Write a sequence for this structure.
C-alpha cells in the first residue's frame, strides 16, 4: 500500500502543519511515512505546499507528479492540482476561497466551506483541520481517531486548550465530506 | 486636477516598474528609494553600475534602472573594484547588508576602503541576517534573540557587535564615512543627504565613500513595521550612534 | 530507541551530537541553516562549543584548529559555502587530522538557487581542493540513513585521520521521516598520539601540511594513498534492490536513488526485470560491485540530479562492456518517478544512445522537456 | 490657512505596512479595509480631508507607492 | 618577431599584455609571483589596470567584476591560492562572462611545497567550484607554447563566454627558452551585447548567476552544456610524436609530457616502436583521439606529476580495450627521462600491472623508490 | 669561571636547539626570543599551543618547545579560535606577518578580535612580504619600493597603509592592543613587557590581545641589519606610532 | 668601578649580523674575521676588555646566540 | 645533437648567470636551448644550480639525471655531481674551493683554480666565467667567441665596462683546461 497526499494553500493557512498531523497519525499507527515541504522563494508570501506519503514498505520518491489525494485551500492551488490529480483521485477544495466549480469529471472533487465551518466552531485557524477531516473520507488508512491522537501528541503546548475544537473541526469536515454525493 | 505644476512627489525615474519583493514596511525599500532619487537628481542613471550583494537585497538589480551585477556573498567591494578600475568614468556603488559587508565580506570592505577605491557603499545595518531567516549578524545587539542566538546574543561566547562606520573611519583611503538611520522622516532626509554626499565624493574622485543606514527587519524581528522603527530609534541608535565619522577635507567643501 | 519524526537537517545535527560532537563551526546558508540553528541551541545546553563563524572560510579553519586537538568537530554548509572551504579542506587532508563536513547541495553554479541538487559530486569526490588527497564521501537518501551515516562519518574520519564529507541534496535536509536516534555517546577524549592539545607531560607535537622537501612530500602523498587503499578495501557501502535477477540496473545515489526505487518498483510491476544499485559511499566508489554486476546485467541507467558526474565513475567500472545510459534533472529540479520509468522503458526496449557520449543523446532528448 | 493637497496610493506597490499612516502629521490616513490589492493587501488611503500635500507619507513609504499633489500653482520643493 | 630568451612566468605575463590584457588582479604566491611582479611594472606603463588584491578571493572577484564589463582580464596564482577562487570561478561560469586564470601548480595538498607538480588536474578539469559548469583548460609544456596558449586563452574565453584556465607546473614557470612573442595587439573595446559597462544610450543590463526558479536554472545549465559541445567539437588540441607506426603510446601533459618525449626518443633509438600523445587542451580532453588510437596501439602508458588524475580520462576513452599503465612522481618531484624509459621497457616487455587499478601496482613498484 | 650564580643571560628554555632559518639580523628572531622568555617566565610552556602563519615565520613551530600547528595563509586566528574553544585552559597564540594578518587574513583577525577570543596575537609588521621575496604589504609605506610597487607605493592606485593596532582597538572584544618596535634595546624591553601583558590578558580571560611589533626585513629592504633598524626608527615609527591603543579596564590593573 | 663581565657567542646560532656589535655600549665587540662558523658566518666576539655583562648584546641578538656572565656573586636581574 | 650542462655552486657564485650566458651563446648560434634553475628553499642561502640543454631539435626534458657536462664551483657540488656525471663526461671543478682530488676514473675531471685566476684578472666575481671558459674545451658546439658575443649582448649595462675582463676570464679558463692532460 502507498498513498500520496498533496496539501496546498497560502502561507498562513496551516498547510505544512496539516500535512505533519497526517504524517504523525500514520506514523503512530505503524505506517512508513514521509512529509516534504516545498521550500525556497515561494516561502516568503506566496503559496506553500507539502506532500505526505503513507506506505507499508520503504518509500522511494517523497514526491509524485500526479497525487491520488490532495487538498487545495485556495484558488491557485485548486487550479494547479485539479489538473495534476491522478484519474480517480479525490480533491478536497476549500469552497470558501474558490469561486468556481470542478472542471474534471474523472476525479472526485469535494467542496468544503472550510473557513465558514471553522468560524462556526469559533476559530478560523482551524480551517486546515476541517479540510483534513474531509480528506479522511478518502484516506481509509488513517482514521479520525488516529488524527485526534496525533493532535493530542503533537499540538504545541500553548495550543493544547484548542484540542476539543480541533476534534470538532475534524469531525465537521469528515461529516460534510461524507454528505457530498461522490 | 493633477498637472505637473502641482505634483509634489512622484516615484523616481531611476526606479523600474517592478514592485519590490521586500516584506511590507521593510526599510530596504526606503534606502532603495533614496538612492534612486539621488541618482536621478545627480543625473547619473546611465553612467551608474550597481553591485548587488547576497542578502534580501540580492534582487536589487530588478529595481534600479541602471546596469547591475550580482556579487558573491560579501565580495561586492571586490567586484566594484574590478569594474571601477577598468571603467573609471562610471559611477559604481555596492548595496550590502550587515552579514554581507560586516561578516563574510570584512576583508573586501576593509581593503576597498584602505585602497581608497573610488566607489560608494550603501550599508544596510538591520542587526540580523534577513534573507536566511534571521540569524545573528555581527551587528546584532547584545542580548538580542535571533535564530542562531536563541537565548539572546551572549557577548562572552558570541562576541560583540561591530561598529563598521567607526572602524572604517580609521583608514586613510576613506573620503566619506557616516552613519544615518531610516526610522523617521527627519532621519530619512538626513540619510538622503548623506547618500548624495557619498556619490558626490565618488564623482569628484575623493576616495572611498560609505553610508551606514540603520534599517528594520520587521519579519525576523517579529514586529509590526511601525514597532520596528521604534526599535531602531530606542535600541539601535543608542548602540550605533548616528554621525559623521570621516569627512575628508576635500569632501567637506562639497556643497549639495 | 523508539522512532520519532525527524526533519533531515535537525536529525543530522542531533545525530552528530549523539556521536560525540564537541565543537561546531558554521555559517548560515539555505538549505542547511537548520543544522546551525539547531546546534546554536543544543551545543551550549550541553556545554559544548558552538561558533557562528564570520564565513565558511573562517568556519573550516576553526574546524581545522579544533581537529588538531583530536576532538570530534564538524561544519556544515551548502554548495557556494563549501566552495569557500577548498583550501582549508586541502590543508586538513594534508595534515591528516579527522574532520566531518556536511554539504546540503543546492542548484548551481554560482548563486544559483536553493532547490535540491547533486551537482557538487565531482567537487566532493574528485576535484575540490588542490593537491592529491583522498576523502570519504557518504551520500544518505533518507533521514534514518542520514542519522546513521553522520555517526559513521565521525568514526571513519577518526579511524583514517581523513576528511569525511556527507553530501545530500536539499530535499533530504527538508524531508521529515520517522527515524531512530542512536543513544547519546559519552564524550571520551581519546589521547591520540598525534593531537596538539598541549605538551603536558609529553614531548611537544607539531601538526602541519608543509613538506618543503619534495621527497618528503612524495612520501606523505603515498602514505595517504596507502591509507586510501585500506578505505577502499574496507569501507565501500551500497544498497542493492532487485538485483538478483535483474537484466539491467539503474544506478543513483541520494534522492535520485530513492526516486529511482519508485520507478524500479513500478517497472517490476510491469514485469520488467530491472534492479537498482544505490551507492552509499560515493567515495570510496563501489567500482568492484559494478564491475561484477557488469557480468550479469546487460546495461546500466545512471540517474543523477546533475549533468552526469557519477556517470563517469560508473563508466570507469563498466569499461565499455555494456551500454551505460544517463538521465538527469538539474538546476534544483527533483525528477519524478515517471520520468525515470520512461527511461527504464527506453532501455528495456534497447533504444540506445546514438552519441559517443550518452549524455549528448540525453541532452537532445531533454530539449523538449526543458524548453517548457 | 494650510495648503490643500491630496495623494494617490498605487495598488501595484502599496503593501499596507502603515508606515505612512503613522507618519502623517495630519492623521488623515488609514488602511482601506474595504479593498484588497492584487497582492492581497489592504492599501493605504486618506479617509478624511486635511492632507496638506506635505509628502511625508511619500518620504517614509518603502515602496514608493505614493504620489503627492498640492493645490497651488508654483511647484513645491521636492520632499527631501 | 625574432626569438628572444624568455622565462616562463614573464613570457606568460607579456603574452597576456600583447593579447590585450586590460586588467590584472592577483596576489603573490610562489612559484608564480614573477607574473604579478612583471605586470606590476608593465601594466601601469601602458596605463592599464593592475591591483595587488588583498587575497586570491579578492582577486578572483575583481576579475569577475572587470569581466562583466567585457574587457580582457586575468588573474594568476598557484595551488592553494587557486583553491580560494573556487566560489568565484563558479559564479563567473554561472554568469557566463569570459575570464582567464593561470595556475602554476606546486606540490600539495595543503601548504605542501613550492616545487613543480600537476596535482590540481582534477580540480581544474573536473571538480573545482560547486555546480555543473564547463571550463576550458590549456596545459603548455614549453615557454613558446605558454605564450601561444595565453593568447589563445583570451580568444577562447571571449568566444565561448567561459573560464579559460592555463595550468602549468612550476618548472614551466621557471624555465628559460628562446621564444617568439606575438605582435602587440591594439586594445579594442568590443561592445558585447551582454556587458554591463553602463547603460549609456541603450537598455540597461543585468549580469548574475541567480536562477531562483529551478526550471530557469535547468535551462541555463543546458545552455552551458550546449556551448560545451561546441567547444568539444572545435577546440580539442594535442601534439602527437612518433604515433604513426607506434605499437603503444605514452600519454602525458605539460612537463611530464615533454620529459616523456626524451624517454620516447631514447626508446625509439633502441628500436622500440613507442609514440607520445601530449594533450594541449586537457579540457576539452582528446577522448576521440585516444579512442581512435586505441584501435591501433596495444597499450597506453600514462605519466603525470600526480597520483594519476588524467589517467582516469584516458581510461574513459580506452574503455578497457587495451591495458592502460601508469607512472608518476609527486610532491614536487619532476621525473627524469630514465624513469619513464624504464616504464616503457616494462610495457614493451608486456609486464602488465596485476591490480584491478594499475595505480595500485605502481604504488607497489614505487615503494623502493620513494623510501629512499 | 661560569657558574649559575654569575649567569646573567642564557638562551631561553622555551626554545628548541634548532637555529632559525631567518636571514642574519632579521628581528623575527628577536620577537621569537621575547615570546620564549615570556612563556618561560610565566611558566606556560607545556600549556601553550602556538599557531604559525604562512610567511617567513611559517617554520616558527621548529623553534618553540611547545605544541604547534601551522595555519593556512591568514587563517591563524580562526585556527586559534577552534583550538581555544575546545581547550579553554590552554594558552593559544598566533604569530603572524603583515601580509598574513593585515591582507589575506583581515576577516579572520577582525572577527577574532570582535568576538573577544581569548587568544594572543603577535603581529610582525615588517612593511613587506618577506617570504615571497619582498612584495608590497598593506603596511608598506607610501612611496616605498617593493617588487610589486617597483616605482614606489603609489597610494592613489595601490592604496594607503593600514594601521592594524588602531583599527582593531575600535572593537569591544579587544582586551589589550598595543604597538611596539624592535629597533633598539629600550624598545625591545618595552616590546617584551607588552608581550607579557598580552599573555597575562589571556591567562586572566580578559579577551583578545595583540602586540604589533615593528620589525625588519634586511634582505628584501636591501639593507644591512643595522641600517634596517635605523629605517624602522626613522621611517616606520613616525608612520606607525608606538603606544597603547587599548588596555581594557580589567587589564590595566594587571601588574607585571 | 663597573662590574666585570664576559660573553660566550655560540657558533651554532651566530649569523654575524652585527646587531650586538652596534648595540654594545662598551664597544668591545666585533666580528671575528679570523673564524667562520659551520654556516659560513664570521661570528661576533669581544675583542678587548670592558664588557660589563650588561647583556644588551643578548637582548638585541635575533638568534639567542649570546650567553652573558658577570663576575659578581649575587645573580643579576635578567636582561629585560 | 643534444648536450646537457649542469652548473652548481653557492648562492653568490654567479651559477645562474653562467648558465644563462651559455644558453644565450647557444641560442645566438641558432641552437635550441633550455635553461632551468633549481628553485625553492635552497635559494635562501644554500646551494644553487641550473641545467642548460643545447640541442638542434625540440628539447624534451630540461633536466637530466646524469649530465655529460658539469661545473662544480664548491665542494658540496663537487661531491654531488661527481657521482651523478655520466660515464665519459667532463666535470669542471673550481679547485679554489675543494680540498680533494677526483674519485671517479671514468670521467674527465678538470680542476681549475677559478678564484685565483679571477683574482689575478682583478675581480673575483669573474670566477664563474673562468669555469665557463674551461667547460668550452669539452663543449665543442659553443666557441669562446660565441660566449663573448653573448656577454656583449646580455651583460647588464652597469657591468659593460667589465667585458674585457670577462673575455680574459673565459680565455684563461679555456687555456688552463686545455693544458690539463685529459
Ligand atoms: C558563501 C555564502 N555563504 C552564505 C550564503 C547564505 N546567505 C545568503 S544571504 C545571507 C545573509 C544575509 O544577511 P545580510 O547581509 O545582513 O542581508 P539582509 O538579508 O539582512 O538584508 C547568507 C548568510 C551564501 N549565499 N553564500
Ligand atoms: C593562499 C595563499 N596565498 C599566497 C601564499 C604565498 N605567500 C606565502 S607567505 C606570503 C606573505 C608573507 O608575508 P608576511 O605575512 O608579511 O610575512 P613575512 O614573510 O614578511 O614575515 C605569501 C603571499 C600562500 N602560501 N597561500
Ligand atoms: S526579511 Fe527582513 S530584511 Fe528581508 S525583506 Fe523582509 S523585512 Fe526586509
Ligand atoms: S507606506 Fe507605502 S506601502 Fe506602506 S502603507 Fe503607506 S503607501 Fe502602502
Ligand atoms: S626575508 Fe625578511 S623577514 Fe624573512 S627572514 Fe629574511 S629578513 Fe626576515
Ligand atoms: S647579534 Fe647575535 S647573531 Fe648577530 S652577530 Fe651578534 S651574536 Fe651573532
Amino acid at each position: 500500500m502507498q498513498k500520496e497526499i498533496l496539501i496546498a494553500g497560502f502561507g498562513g493557512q496551516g498547510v505544512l502543519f496539516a500535512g505533519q498531523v497526517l504524517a504523525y497519525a500514520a506514523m503512530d499507527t505503524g505506517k512508513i511515512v514521509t512529509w516534504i515541504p516545498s521550500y525556497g522563494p515561494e516561502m516568503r508570501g506566496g503559496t506553500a505546499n507539502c506532500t505526505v506519503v503513507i506506505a507499508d514498505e520503504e518509500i522511494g520518491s517523497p514526491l509524485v507528479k500526479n497525487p491520488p489525494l490532495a487538498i487545495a485551500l485556495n484558488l491557485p492551488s485548486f487550479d494547479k492540482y485539479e489538473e495534476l490529480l491522478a484519474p480517480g483521485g479525490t480533491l478536497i477544495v476549500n469552497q470558501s476561497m474558490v469561486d468556481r466549480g470542478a472542471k474534471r469529471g474523472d476525479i472526485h472533487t469535494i467542496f468544503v466551506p472550510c473557513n465558514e465551518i471553522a468560524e462556526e466552531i469559533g476559530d478560523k485557524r482551524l480551517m486546515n483541520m476541517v479540510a483534513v477531516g474531509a480528506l479522511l473520507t478518502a484516506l481509509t488508512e488513517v482514521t479520525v481517531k488516529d488524527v485526534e491522537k496525533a493532535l493530542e501528541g503533537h499540538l504545541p503546548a500553548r495550543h493544547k486548550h484548542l484540542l476539543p475544537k480541533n476534534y470538532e473541526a475534524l469531525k465537521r469536515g469528515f461529516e460534510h465530506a461524507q454528505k457530498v454525493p461522490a | 486636477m493633477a498637472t505637473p505644476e502641482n505634483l509634489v512627489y512622484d516615484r523616481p525615474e531611476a526606479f523600474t516598474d517592478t514592485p519590490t519583493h521586500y516584506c511590507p514596511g521593510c526599510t530596504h525599500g526606503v534606502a532603495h528609494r533614496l538612492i534612486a532619487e539621488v541618482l536621478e537628481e545627480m543625473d547619473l542613471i546611465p553612467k551608474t553600475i550597481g553591485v548587488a550583494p547576497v542578502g534580501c537585497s540580492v534582487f536589487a538589480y530588478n529595481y534600479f534602472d541602471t546596469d547591475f551585477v550580482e556579487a558573491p556573498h560579501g565580495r561586492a567591494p571586490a567586484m566594484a573594484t574590478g569594474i571601477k578600475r577598468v571603467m573609471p568614468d562610471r559611477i559604481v556603488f555596492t548595496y550590502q547588508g550587515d552579514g554581507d559587508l560586516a561578516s563574510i565580506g570584512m576583508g573586501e570592505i576593509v581593503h576597498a576602503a584602505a585602497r581608497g577605491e573610488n566607489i560608494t557603499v550603501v550599508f544596510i545595518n538591520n542587526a540580523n541576517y534577513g534573507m536566511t531567516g534571521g540569524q545573528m549578524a555581527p551587528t546584532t545587539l547584545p542580548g538580542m534573540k535571533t535564530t542562531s542566538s536563541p537565548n539572546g546574543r551572549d557577548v562572552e561566547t558570541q562576541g560583540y557587535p561591530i561598529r563598521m562606520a567607526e572602524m572604517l573611519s580609521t583608514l586613510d583611503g576613506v573620503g566619506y564615512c557616516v552613519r544615518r538611520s531610516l526610522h523617521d522622516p527627519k532621519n530619512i532626509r538626513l540619510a538622503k543627504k548623506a547618500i548624495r554626499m557619498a556619490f558626490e565624493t565618488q564623482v569628484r574622485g575623493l576616495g572611498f565613500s560609505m553610508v551606514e543606514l540603520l534599517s528594520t527587519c520587521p519579519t525576523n524581528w517579529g514586529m509590526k513595521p511601525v514597532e520596528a522603527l521604534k526599535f531602531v530609534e530606542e535600541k539601535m541608535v543608542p548602540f550605533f550612534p548616528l554621525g559623521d565619522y570621516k569627512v575628508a577635507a576635500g569632501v567637506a567643501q562639497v556643497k549639495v | 530507541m523508539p522512532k520519532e519524526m525527524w526533519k533531515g537537517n535537525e536529525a543530522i545535527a542531533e545525530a552528530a551530537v549523539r556521536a560525540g560532537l564537541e565543537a561546531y563551526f558554521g555559517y548560515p546558508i539555505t538549505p542547511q541553516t537548520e543544522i546551525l540553528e539547531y546546534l546554536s541551541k543544543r551545543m551550549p545546553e550541553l556545554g559544548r562549543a558552538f561558533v557562528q563563524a564570520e564565513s565558511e572560510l573562517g568556519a573550516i579553519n576553526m574546524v581545522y584548529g579544533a581537529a588538531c586537538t583530536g576532538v570530534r568537530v564538524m561544519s556544515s554548509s551548502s554548495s557556494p559555502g563549501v566552495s569557500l572551504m577548498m583550501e582549508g579542506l586541502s590543508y586538513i587532508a594534508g595534515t591528516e587530522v579527522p574532520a566531518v563536513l556536511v554539504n546540503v547541495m543546492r542548484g548551481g553554479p554560482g548563486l544559483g538557487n536553493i532547490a535540491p541538487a547533486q551537482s557538487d559530486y565531482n567537487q566532493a569526490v574528485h576535484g575540490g581542493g588542490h593537491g592529491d588527497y583522498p576523502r570519504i564521501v557518504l551520500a544518505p537518501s533518507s533521514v534514518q540513513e542520514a542519522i546513521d551515516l553522520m555517526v559513521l562519518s565521525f568514526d571513519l574520519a577518526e579511524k583514517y585521520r581523513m576528511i569525511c564529507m556527507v553530501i545530500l541534496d536539499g530535499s533530504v535536509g527538508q524531508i521529515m521521516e520517522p527515524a531512530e536516534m542512536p543513544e547519546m555517546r559519552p564524550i571520551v577524549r581519546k589521547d591520540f598520539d598525534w593531537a596538539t592539545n598541549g605538551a603536558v607531560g609529553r614531548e611537544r607535537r607539531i601538526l602541519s601540511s608543509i613538506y618543503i622537501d619534495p621527497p618528503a612530500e612524495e612520501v606523505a602523498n603515498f602514505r595517504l594513498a596507502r591509507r586510501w587503499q585500506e578505505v577502499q578495501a574496507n569501507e565501500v557501502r551500497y544498497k542493492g534492490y532487485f538485483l538478483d535477477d535483474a537484466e539491467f540496473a539503474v544506478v543513483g545515489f541520494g534522492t535520485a536513488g530513492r526516486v529511482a526505487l519508485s520507478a524500479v518498483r513500478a517497472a517490476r510491476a510491469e514485469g520488467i526485470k530491472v534492479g537498482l544499485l544505490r551507492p552509499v559511499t560515493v567515495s570510496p566508489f563501489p567500482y568492484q560491485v559494478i564491475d561484477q554486476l557488469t557480468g550479469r546485467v546487460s546495461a546500466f541507467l545512471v540517474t543523477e540530479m546533475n549533468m552526469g558526474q557519477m556517470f563517469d565513475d560508473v563508466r570507469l567500472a563498466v569499461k565499455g562492456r555494456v551500454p551505460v545510459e544517463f538521465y538527469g534533472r538539474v538546476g534544483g529540479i527533483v525528477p519524478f518517478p515517471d520520468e525515470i520509468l520512461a527511461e527504464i522503458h527506453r532501455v528495456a526496449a534497447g533504444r540506445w544512445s546514438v552519441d559517443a557520449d550518452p549524455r549528448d543523446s540525453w541532452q537532445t532528448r531533454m530539449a523538449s522537456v526543458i524548453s517548457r | 490657512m494650510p495648503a490643500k493637497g491630496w495623494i494617490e496610493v498605487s495598488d501595484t506597490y502599496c503593501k499596507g505596512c502603515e508606515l505612512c499612516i503613522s507618519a502623517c502629521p495630519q492623521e488623515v490616513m488609514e488602511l482601506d479595509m474595504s479593498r484588497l490589492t492584487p497582492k492581497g493587501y489592504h492599501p493605504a488611503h486618506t479617509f478624511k480631508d486635511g492632507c496638506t500635500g506635505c509628502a511625508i507619507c511619500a518620504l517614509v513609504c518603502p515602496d514608493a507607492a505614493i504620489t503627492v499633489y498640492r493645490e497651488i500653482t508654483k511647484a513645491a520643493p521636492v520632499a527631501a
